[in-house]
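re: ur question from earlier - yeah i can do the single chain one, its not a big deal. heres the input i used so u can compare w yours
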Amino acid sequence: MLGAMDDQQAYDAMVEFLDAYWRRGGMHSDDIAILLGGLSRSIWTNGRPGDAAMWEDWMIAVNKVKGAS
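and the output i got, formated as tokens:
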């Protein structure tokens, strides 16, 4: 079993998962490529996603899942 992750680590794990999926698929999906670009935290020096709304959407999803537990 994996140890507990904070929200940031879980976000990074999700991005890694999507990136690996996209690469295994031959990097043909423009939709996933665009999503990964928006999710990337390497664009800005503050470590936030390239698309600022992505973090807010992520936190909504995290809170939804935590509330369902």
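The mean pLDDT is 88. not sure if urs matches, ping me
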